[in-house]
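Incident log, structure service

09:12 report received: a user says their structure output differs between two submissions of the same chain.
09:20 pulled the input from the user's history:
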Amino acid sequence: MEYDDPLDISKSQRKRELDELKKLGSELLEFSDDALRQLAISGKLLEALRTAKRINSNSARKRQMQYIGKLLKDEDAAPLVAAVDARHHQHATHTREFHKLEELRDKLIRDGDSALADVLALFPRADRQHLRKLVRQARKEQETKQPPRASRLLFRALRELQEQPEY
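09:34 re-ran on a clean worker, output below:
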């Protein structure tokens, strides 16, 4: 429902909208300074966000978020919401890929050479001997209850393989 006159909007609706803008502002606080500068926001809003990042007191931060919400009323919120959504999607994708690599590493340690074929199918340019060496070391560390140094190295090697352009 579109309202032509701002007086037609109820006070509760205005509060809900301001709360949504404050929530958007708090999500913008997670962005780095460079990422904020890349967004098309006013200088006042950029400075208010920088100030909010420096505030430690809860009551002062609450007042600053109120101010940020008011400044966001004058901004076009659609690109800001899109940027926040893109950031959440990127984080979820990164987390999903991280978990897949962890599962692959654990499968390699658990199954050994039979799982190595799966890894080589995913990463054809992988160094088979290096991976086998890391798997043997990780298994030995698990059996002797040592810190998982080789397991971390194996994960790092898998991540480097994933980040290669031909992946």
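09:41 both user submissions now match this output. Likely a transient worker issue. Closing.
09:42 reviewer note: The helical segments are 11-28, 33-38, 43-54, 58-73, 77-111, 113-122, 128-143, 149-163. The mean pLDDT is 86.
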